[in-house]
Amino acid sequence: xxxxxxxxxxxxxxxxxxxxxxxxxxxxxxxxxxxxxxxxxxxxxxxxxxxxxxxxxxxxxxxxxxxxxxxxxxxxxxxxxxxxxxxxxxxxxxxxxxxxxxxxxxxxxxxxxxxxxxxxxxxxxxxxxxxxxxxxxxxxxxxxxxxxxxxxxxxxxxxxxxxxxxxxxxxxxxxxxxxxxxxxxxxxxxxxxxxxxxxxxxxxxxxxxxxxxxxxxxxxxxxxxxxxxxxxxxxxxxxxxxxxxxxxxxxxxxxxxxxxxxxxxxxxxxxxxxxxxxxxxxxxxxxxxxxxxxxxxxxxxxxxxxxxxxxxxxxxxxxxxxxxxxxxxxxx
Length: 332
Ligand code: NAD
Ligand code: DAU
Hints:
The protein has eleven helices and eleven strands. It is of the alpha/beta class. α1 crosses α7, α4 (87-107) packs parallel to α5 (142-161) and α6 packs parallel to α8 (243-253).
């Protein structure tokens, strides 16, 4: 199995989960090791890491020889960065996916493409709808537009060239090894560094949070039992939890006053609400999230994630000052 972007957050957790739960996978990773990729994410894992760009066609073709399957996580993944500099998003998410598609086509390798709920745009807070596999695409940011484009490319290569591929669109992940630019680890590490959580705008935005292991279990199921050519929505039914509640819960779990946070400048074009209907995945493949509870659905997963950041200061501390400097230059 070739895993693109396997040194990033979800990809490295995917490789760890695969090797922990399966004995018959031999894993190679291709990763450019951008600011978001980290060799340390793979410590202790029996894998081969090739440092390289998925846009490098000769390299991708060489790597494809002898592969049975490719799982494609590599992407520029952060919305705020896509507003500051969209070029890298077009390069990796579109040109990179195109390059990969041509390589799997040439070598007859099965592909699973990892995508996001953001391709569907957002819902109003009072809209009870959820995204399904039939929802029309309506992306808002340069990040989500390039992810939407990459999904379209995969579907076109399935239909026009008959490649063997599946797609999954998942909601917001959280868990260990997530880069501290992202919402949940940023707040946890702000507190651990002696600062305050920073909430964009009013904090009423809703994300359908899912623990990264639940996402990756879904990816493994789709890879092994999914129907070729199909798309699967992945979500854990947390579409009732807003950012303010998440910040308050993090404060509470870290023994602080729930309301001890700062409001900072909002994200331009900020999507309001995402909500996923994962009925197809649950009924066809029998998937269900394991990180659930009766209140926010996130308490156990968040407590575990907070403990991980407490125990892995050496992993995140070197990046903290730069990340916060960049946020503070944008008033965030
Ligand atoms: P991440 O930013 O943590 O990791 C991305 C990885 O891709 C990094 O290791 C980076 O070095 C690598 N990469 C970037 N450009 C590359 C290139 N040109 N060639 C090779 N490697 C390159 O991202 P993540 O949060 O782990 O997201 C992984 C995938 O899951 C992305 O496709 C993202 O769109 C999707 N996704 C993310 C979430 C989420 O909540 N984080 C939710 C749904 C879907
Ligand atoms: O929905 C899936 C998407 O989730 C993935 O496709 C993206 O790769 C991933 O980055 C994530 O996108 P979001 O933009 O939703 O995630 P982010 O962690 O940046 O922000 C989550 C919410 O928290 C969002 O409403 C913005 C808000 N926020 C974010 C930061 C960094 C804050 O209030 N404060 C912050 O400091």
